[in-house]
Amino acid sequence: IKAVSEEIMELTEHYGAHNYHPLPIVVSEAQGVWVKDPEGNQYMDMLSAYSAVNQGHRHPKIIAALKEQADKVTLTSRAFHNELLGPWTKRVAELTGKDKVLPMNTGVEAVETAIKAARRWAYEVKGVADNKAEIIAAKGNFHGRTLNAISLSNDPDATKDYGPFVPNIKKVEYGDGDAIAAAITPNTAAVIVEPIQGEAGIIIPPEGYLKAIREVCKENNVLFIADEVQTGFARTGKMFACEWEDVVPDIYVMGKALGGGVFPVSAIAANKEIMDVFTPGSHGSTFGGNPLACAVSLAALHVIEEEDLAKRSLELGEYFENALNRIDNPEIKAVRARGLFIGVEFHHPVRKYCEELKEEGVLCKETHENTIRFAPPLVIKQEELDWAIEKINKVLSK
Ligand code: PMP
């Protein structure tokens, strides 16, 4: 007799497009850091849906907010006002220190929104000639899957046979502030970077990089867009990863954990001078800023603060990093960590480690071929982390 999991995976393989290569596990229940398959086996989630589940699976306060709002109204579209868009935009504006917030749903939509804002700003405020606006991006980036976002990418897997791409994009080495300075022209609208590159394998830029971008953008009247979709909301031990260098970007791009692992919620935040380039009819989304999303997101933000998840990420991240550094395996090339945002790079592919860890009850995923990412929900307890470290030691020490 086939296990339920096997049947589900076969069905998905049969009818679903093969645009992912998931580990062979079906997750059918989840709570906090733990998930279960249909057979009742329990695993610890060390991926957090690529950092979207920072608050832990089904956080009771977030689920309560979801249920409460579901009993009132879930979707209005922006044709009408809803009660929660005001309080939610105020909350996100206060959090980012920006004047205004524009809601979207997925991370890549927020990236699109930021690029569109920057282009309009370049034409309408900076005075760049029509169709000349340029964007500077960093090599190795991941900003999402739309054509605009992959036009920023230099990853062959993400871009092959999808052209023609969005023009006027320059791609420079990540971590090199001088390269950005050299790429800027009078037509440059914005520089977009991840404060730490997540999908590239938790690549932490050299100290001073974000400050250098901040300065060079200011000097040249260019917008600094920080894609904090993955690094934001306490993942790296600060609310936003830009805080590691005390830097404030012109546009924050946010997603993932903004929705508390429950609902897709994304946004950009920027000051009036930039956000006012949007006028009615110029941009939008049917689902962006819907009441359910706002209710969930307000609760998600509340949980991050109430449980001081940034501090927890910082402290447990350091502890985890030290434990990983003690693993005796010559195949480990580097351990890179900022809070509970950790990459362990090997000299060879790591898929087999992920599969072995799964057998031990720890779920994680390779990023590219050679790096294992460990990014558990930030609500993880010390004893839960210790349990995982023991398993990780066992698998990675051989
Ligand atoms: N930006 C960054 C930095 C990301 O890590 C991701 C997702 N991994 C995205 C954008 C895209 O987010 P989404 O998948 O929600 O579109």
TrEMBL record:
CDD domains referenced in this protein's UniProt entry, alphabetically: OAT_like (cd00610)
Q: Return the EC number.
A: 2.6.1.13
One Gene Ontology molecular-function label:
identical protein binding
GO annotations under biological process? L-proline biosynthetic process
Q: Which residues carry this modification: N6-(pyridoxal phosphate)lysine?
A: K256
Q: Name one GO cellular component term.
A: cytoplasm
Keywords, A to Z, come to: Amino-acid biosynthesis, Aminotransferase, Cytoplasm, Proline biosynthesis, Pyridoxal phosphate, Transferase
Pathway membership: Amino-acid biosynthesis; L-proline biosynthesis; L-glutamate 5-semialdehyde from L-ornithine: step 1/1
Reactions that this protein is recorded to catalyse: a 2-oxocarboxylate + L-ornithine = L-glutamate 5-semialdehyde + an L-alpha-amino acid
Q: Which InterPro entries does the record match to this protein?
A: Aminotrans_3, Aminotrans_3_PPA_site, Class-III_PLP-dep_AT, Orn_aminotrans, Ornith_aminotrans_bact, PyrdxlP-dep_Trfase, PyrdxlP-dep_Trfase_major, PyrdxlP-dep_Trfase_small
Q: Which domain of life is it from?
A: Bacteria
Q: What class of enzyme is it?
A: transferase
- What function is annotated for this protein? Catalyzes the interconversion of ornithine to glutamate semialdehyde.
What HAMAP family does this protein map onto?
Answer: Ornith_aminotrans_3
- Name of the protein in its database record: Ornithine aminotransferase
